[in-house]
Design brief:
The protein has 13 helices and no strands. It is mainly alpha-helical and 287 residues long. The protein folds into two domains: 57 residues; 227 residues, no CATH class. α5 runs parallel beside α10, α11 packs antiparallel against α12 and α12 packs antiparallel against α13. It is globular. The termini are far apart.
């Protein structure tokens, strides 16, 4: 009898514990399900918020005002821009600058496109030092003052004023000019005036590798610094592809550094695309 009673008591206890465990599991599963649903909702809301932020960051009215194309929707993901569309953007931009009177306010009477061509010619004829600037103090000083020496004070101040006043569209603007500089033979009839790859490589190396170039970027705001570094990396990558990296600049540390800088930067319209491009370059240069 004692054995039977103990057995029955044990069974009842086991049954109660088992039911308690099942109820606990059900409560736990229900709790995890509620948390999962809540998390899923937060992810959906976050995605919506990111879309809203990106839409808010794209200055559609300003793009329309500057480039004159209501349908303009630029993105680093779109690849090659149609030659005629690219030419319209370039012409519209310089026309916009003329209408705003940027040059005249600095005593420059020529059209901004003519000013741009003259600037490109001057900078192409006398590129900065990418290596060897530390051999003596005079070389370093000359490199530090490169843009003022080659272009002149008012010209440099004009460029800085344009970048500062048009900061809202600077990402789209740089994207267009980079696409323009890469158009080459693909767009033979397009408006000319951009620098050659050799020249762009020298300036990319200056900003990435030279003390004077790095110092110059440190004095700029974060967006200009990031964009200059990003496109310098793309130019260096293109130079590598065409075996034009005559200074032997290692692209890898710049990719890693810029990735984390962009990751922590707020207010970039094309942040996701920049990061994706850098991830691709990181894979490319793994070896």
């Amino acid at each position: 009898m004692l054995v039977v009673v103990v057995g029955m008591a044990g069974y009842v206890a086991f049954d109660q514990v088992n039911k308690w465990h099942e109820r606990g599991m059900e409560r736990g599963l229900a709790g995890w399900q509620r948390k999962a649903e809540k998390l899923e909702g937060e992810v959906i809301n976050l995605r919506k918020e990111l879309v809203k932020q990106r839409v808010a960051l794209i200055p559609s009215k300003r793009l329309l005002e500057v480039f004159g194309e209501e349908s303009v929707e630029l993105s680093p993901e779109q690849g090659e821009i149609d030659c005629e569309e690219l030419e319209r953007h370039i012409i519209s931009f310089f026309t916009y600058l003329d209408e705003k009177g940027y040059g005249k306010s600095y005593g420059i009477q020529e059209r901004t496109y003519d000013f741009f061509k003259r600037m490109v010619e001057q900078l192409s004829e006398k590129p900065p030092m990418v290596t060897g600037e530390m051999k003596d103090l005079s070389s370093l000083i000359r490199n530090m003052a490169h843009f003022y020496r080659i272009l002149g004070k008012k010209e440099v101040e004009l460029i800085k004023e344009i970048v500062r006043s048009e900061s809202e569209i600077v990402e789209s603007l740089v994207l267009i000019f980079f696409a323009w500089s890469n158009s080459g033979d693909r767009c033979e009839s397009i408006i000319k005036g951009y620098p050659s790859l050799n020249v762009m490589y020298e300036y990319a190396g200056f900003f990435l590798n030279a003390l004077a170039g790095k110092s110059y970027l440190l004095r700029r705001d974060s967006k200009v610094r990031i964009l200059t570094t990003y496109y310098s990396i793309l130019i260096l990558d293109r130079a590598n592809d065409e075996t034009l990296n005559r200074h032997g600049i290692d692209i890898r540390p710049y990719i890693d550094f810029l990735f984390y800088e962009i990751l922590n930067q707020r207010g970039l319209v094309y942040q996701r695309q920049y990061l994706a491009e850098l991830v691709g370059l990181k894979e490319k240069y793994k070896k």
